[in-house]
Design goal:
201 residues, alpha+beta, 2 domains, six-stranded mixed beta sheet, 34% strand, DUF2944, DUF2946 family protein
């Protein structure tokens, strides 16, 4: 967190938090909701899609001051004010890269390294989630196929073989030559509880 943010929090400790103004898309894009209706209108109207934040300086500021509270609610600490974030995917949106030796590695939407992964999860829609000490991550759709290709069962079989089974159970997988990690199925209803985050704080 930025020093000036910490100083502002100490100087004004009781600024009320806000909701509905900021969201993180399933592709890792920060979006501003200028009418504060990112959660929908008070009378139950639809959620605003929001406007993409494109300023590199603002994006970098949000990235540096993005964190979670003890309840699994993610927010941007904007000076003394906490701005809670609507998560359209997960707290971290993950991309797949390769290191200098050609090994696959995961990076978050903020540009930070992600891992080691302690658990992988697939939902009924085919989205791939990961868990690490940093919190829950969703593999971005643009990198999903490559990540699935990079995951192997511990016996070396591709993940597609497991997915083609009529009723697959959990298995252990490796990303590249990494550590053995469990992979299981998670329902949409159990996702937030299982991975420990709140999409609409």
């Amino acid at each position: 967190m930025d020093d000036q943010v910490l100083a502002a929090m100490a100087r004004w400790p009781n600024v009320p938090a806000v909701h509905g103004w900021l969201s993180l898309s399933a592709r890792g894009q920060w979006r501003l909701h200028p009418h504060g209706r990112g959660w929908g209108a008070p009378e139950g109207g639809p959620e605003e899609p929001g406007e993409a934040i494109t300023s590199p300086q603002i994006i970098a500021f949000i990235n540096r001051n993005y964190l979670a509270d003890d309840a699994g609610r993610w927010c941007f600490q904007n000076g003394p004010q906490r701005v809670y974030v609507r998560l359209d995917g997960a707290p971290w949106i993950l991309g797949l890269e390769t290191d200098a030796q050609g090994r696959p590695l995961l990076r978050t939407h903020t540009g930070a390294g992600y891992g080691p992964v302690t658990h992988w999860w697939l939902d009924p829609e085919g989205r791939l989630y990961a868990q690490s000490d940093r919190g829950a991550g969703l593999v971005a759709d643009r990198d999903l196929a490559r990540t699935i290709d990079a995951l192997r069962a511990v016996d070396g079989r591709p993940l597609d073989d497991w997915l083609e089974r009529p009723a697959p159970a959990g298995i252990a997988v490796r990303l590249g030559g990494g550590a053995e990690t469990p992979l299981g199925l998670v329902s949409a209803d159990a996702l937030e509880t299982t991975l420990g985050f709140i999409r609409r704080p």
